[in-house]
Amino acid sequence: MNRQRESNNETFKKGIEHPDPAICVNVIIGLIHVTTYLLDQQIRRLEKDFLKEGGIRERMTSARLDRRNKNS
To answer: Which superkingdom does the taxonomy of this entry point to (predicted)?
Structure first.
């Protein structure tokens, strides 16, 4: 179901509520795989951004120093 181009919540709802338990389980497993993939992508992006731009303290310090240098 998750390979269908036009799949949406209703598509997955039909699968989860299907009378055949095997279909329900397969849909749920598929959703778990998709969720895991998306979370992995988000974590990789956050790591990349952190390494490139630093954490919140580094960005705050940088902004403060930039502002201080502009006022000088």
So the answer is: Bacteria
CA torsion sign, 34 to 38 to 39 to 44? Answer: positive
Domain boundaries, the chain: 18-70
Instruction: Report the alpha-carbon distance of residue 58 to residue 25 in Å, rounded.
Output: 45
Q: How far apart are the first and last CA of the chain?
A: 60
**pTM confidence score:** 0.68
Cα–Cα dist 8/31, whole Å: 12
Rounded Cα distance between 31 and 29, Å, is 5
Helix, strand or coil for residue 3? coil
pLDDT of residue 10: 85
